[in-house]
Structure formats: structure tokens, C-alpha cells
Amino acid sequence: MNRICRLFGIERPVVQGGMVWCSGWRLASAVSNAGGLGLLGAGSMHPETLLEHIRKCKDATDKPFGVNVPLMYPELEKIMDIIVAEGVKVVFTSAGSPSKWTEFLHGAGIKVAHVVSSTRFAAKCEEAGVDAIVAEGFEAGGHNGREETTTFCLIPAVKRICTVPLIAAGGIVSGEGILAAQVLGADGVQLGTRFALTRESSAHFSFKDCCLRLEEGDTVLTLKQLSPTRLVKNEFYKQVEEAERRGASADEMKELLGKGRAKKGIFEGDIFDGELEIGQAASMLRQLQTVDEVMEELFREYEAALKRLGMGH
């Protein structure tokens, strides 16, 4: 049996990314019910909101699910205490050092995976004792590594130096993509963009509609002096680009971003002035599907790709 399936107690080695403003209880429970691992995105939730989503998720599925926690979250202790108190079994951490929290979570019997964008951080994760590593290439949406390493370069490199189960993320939206990641050494995959654009995702319909019309090259990695983020090229992005071109300071960039810019774009559907975070692979998607339809399609494509390769001998 697959190492990721065994680790998390799931049927299919597919994890749904815990994305801000997309990953509520409806999405997480639907992915878990379809055999994958659903994650709640704590990054855009107040502690009491997270508590509500954990409880609703428990009501909606009896399968394992987890919480994604960005370690730069302002009320981190509160969030971690809620996760432990509610008996959540899996936590994915990102944006910070995993060493401090991994031990704490392990003490509560929680499995920990950490998201990295380079082999240097992957090695640190292994030292910190994480149960799995998510290696995310810069094709991914949202916050990203400064190294700009692609998924296909990152996975084999991390595989060479790490022994823990490895999850590939960034640019994977198809069954063929899952198979390719496995061939390169991944035990499982994490899909963000594909699940952000499902019916169960809590993102606004206008955001989903906009992302399903994107062409190749319509997203770009920007905001590099603050925290590299992949954005859709819209009016807001043009302001960011203009500010970066004239050498705006980090403080000025922070002011431009202001408060709630991603919420405005993703959750409230302001596709002009909002911050629209989505992966490069959105340009390969054209229809709004349910999670069940996505999972069925992924594994139909996966089996077909295996067969095709078998016929190639």
C-alpha cells in the first residue's frame, strides 16, 4: 500500500491544498469522503471560525481530514490549542520553521507534514522529524519559494536527500500529472488549483469563473521582495508591477497590498482590484466540477496513462 495512504489512513494518495479563502469544511469533507485527504485552510480563519469548520467537517465526514497552518499566523498558539483539543489527526505546516511545532503536535498524536520549496528546507524538515514533506514547485498558486524551482526539478532532488514520504505539489491537475510525480519519486500529490476551482470550494463564483478562462501565461510570480506570490494578471497586479518597476520600498508594497486584498479577490469576487492567487495549471482547466467528478476524472486519467505506457513496451 502507498506510504501516504498508510500514513494518513486514506484510500487515494491525493491531498487537497489548504488554501486561504477556498478550503472550508465543505471542500475538505468532500475530498476526504472521495478518498483523499481534505485540509481546512486556517490561514484565512479566525480561531473561532476554524473551530466551527473543524466541527462541521467532523459532522460531514468520518474519514481523516487535516488543517493547514501557516506558521506566520498571528494567533498561532490559539490555533494549535484548538487543533489539539478537537482531536484533529493531521496538520500541514508552511511558511516557517517546522522544528518548534512538530514536537508539540507529535506529543498530541498528530501527524505533521511541512511544505517546502527547496532541498535546503526539506533537509531541515527531516531533521525536525516531520512525518511527510510537501515539495512545492513554483508553478503553484499563492505563496511560493524564492528559488523558483519547478516541481519536476524539485521532486527528484528532494527524493535524493530525504527518506520520509514525499508529496509533490505545484502544477498537478491531471491523472497524468499524478503519475509523472510518482515516477519522479513522489509518494503522493497535493492539488490546490484543481480543488480551488470546484463547486465545493468557498471561493467566490466570479473568482472561479475568471480562473477557468485563463490562458497560458496569465499568471505570474510577483511580490518577490515581500513574499513571492503567484497572481493572475489583473488591475491589481498592474499596480504591483508598476510599483515594483519604480523600485517601491517594502513598506510601500505592504501598504498597496493593504488588509484583506486576497479576501477581496478570492472570497468576495472582486476580480479587478482583488489579489487573485491561482496556479499556472489553471489554464488547463475549463469547467467547474464537483470534487467527486474531479476525483473520478483524475483516477480515470491515471489508469489510462498507466495502460498507455504499458502498451508502449
What can you see in these coordinates?
It is a single chain. The protein has helices at residues 3-8, 25-33, 47-60, 76-85, 99-107, 119-128, 151-161, 175-183, 193-196, 205-211, 235-245, 250-257, 261-267, 291-311; strands spanning 14-16, 38-41, 65-70, 90-94, 111-116, 132-136, 142-143, 166-169, 188-191, 219-222, 229-232. By secondary structure, the chain is an alpha/beta fold. It has 2 domains: 11-203, Aldolase class I (TIM Barrel, Alpha-Beta Barrel); 205-281, no CATH class. The strands form 2 sheets. An 8-stranded parallel sheet has the order 1-9-8-6-5-4-3-2. A 3-stranded antiparallel sheet has the order 7-11-10, covered by helices on one side. Helix 5 links the parallel strand 4 (90-94) and strand 5 (111-116). Helix 2 (25-33) packs parallel to helix 3 (47-60) and helix 3 packs parallel to helix 4. It is globular, with a radius of gyration of 18 Å. The chain starts with a helix and ends with a helix. The relative contact order is 0.13. The model has no long low-confidence stretch (mean pLDDT 96).
